[in-house]
Amino acid sequence: MAEKKKSSSSQKPNFFKSLFKNKVFWICFGVVLLALIVVWCNFAPPDPEGKVGPVVVGQHLARFIGLFLILAIGLAIGRITIKGVSFGSAGVFLVALGVGIAFAAIPPDTPWIGQFVLVEDATKGIHDITIYGDVLENFGLILFASAVGFIAGPTFFRSFKTNAKSFITMGVSVTLVGILLTALIGLIPGIGPFYASGIFSGAITSTPALAAAQEVAKAAGDQAVTLVTIGYAVTYPLGVLGVVLFIQLMPKILKADMSMERGLLIVKALKQEMNEEKAEEEKQRQGLDKTYFEVDSFGLVPFSIAAFAGLLVGAITIPLTPDGFAGPCFSLGTTGGCLLSCIIFGHFGHIGKMSFKVPANVNKTFREFGLIVFLAGIGIVGGYKIINSASTGGIDPVTIVYAILLGVIITVIPMIGGYFMGKYIFKLPLLNNLGAITGSMTSTPALGALIGMAKTDDVANAYAAAFPIATILTAIGMNLYLTLI
After folding, report:
1. What angle do helix axes 222-254 and 360-391 make, rounded to 10 degrees?
2. With the C-alpha atoms ordered 292, 294, 299, 305, is the resulting torsion angle positive or negative?
3. What's this model's pTM, rounded to 2 decimal places?
4. How many CB atoms lie within 10 A of CB 148?
5. 82-134: pLDDT as tens digits
6. Greatest C-alpha distance within the chain
7. DSSP string of 219-236?
8. pLDDT digit string (tens) for 194-224?
């Protein structure tokens, strides 16, 4: 009897241990607890002043709740693969686009949901999406462009010296084809040059081209500025998705052996690393090696300093005509400035005795996080502007359909031409070819997709080589096109 009692008593703690380890138990417990909290809040007396309620979410908190929800859902959708093709990080853009459309459609006074809609003045129902367009978009670009610059910096100048002619020529050719198509589209009745310039800027995802077109359009009146803005807003989503899909589909269409293509880049990188290691060992044998001071082990201080310098470089504005700053101007902007600055800092690796090296894992984290934050920002703003423009009568819906079709043409034809040029004229490997195309199209999201597909950061060298010349030419081209017509 004593043994039976002992055995039965020993089973009790085992029962509770197994219960507490059971996931179903904790799920049920959480559901019941949440239900009790909801019931308690529902029957609680209301605050007479209305300042406190069951859910207290201010506008700033709501924006961040929305941001991280968009990131989570978008990345999950981006992981869905159909016949080897997926949206990747561009899934965030698709979700953000839907959220932007919802912001334009949901009234600010809608119960529960209304408090998450960005509103500047609830009494007038004016939506405020500037935090996404101005803050999140730029913050994401800073992180992404700076990280890409640091990653490409150590090998950029060697790669640029070897392949400068091919990458620069591709950047020039792809841009000029896009500008020529824009000039032809501008001749279509009902489109005109200003709407065409907006379509071009969005189709190749070029913010500098948009800024240049808007600057010239200001002299022609508010209607011209509106046409440029709407053309950009309508075609930008297509430009982002078009280049991303082109980058992912081309290897499938060509049935490329990605292991071999990846190997071509890896072999080159290994040879460069071996040469660097030999030079480093020689320095150590000769006693010439230097140890540099690291401010922090994560490299956040050099990253911040380089990004700060890049923002200053990007803010430099250069007049393009004798009218000075009253006429068309050019600047590298956030992307170009941070990319150029961090390539230089990443190349030298130190200033005096201070190390400017950023660990690879930090750069990759900043690159991915910056990219998805940037996509969330532009997606929300783009979706909102499309619906808002159509509903307020800013432009005929039929003309928007024309813009979509013409935007596809401007996005696809230059990429196809650039691919054949890189393959048959410059004999570039596939991944280098696609990297140069992403730079020529000034497509930051496509570079992220290419890096993920290639599984190597070496493709960023081709992007970084073609991007500056394409950025400059798109801005100057739009200025000249609108000024000379």
Report:
1. 130
2. negative
3. 0.66
4. 31
5. 765 566 777 887 888 888 888 777 766 665 565 555 544 444 444 555 566 66
6. 107
7. TT-HHHHHHHHHHHHHHH
8. 888 888 988 887 766 776 677 677 767 767 7
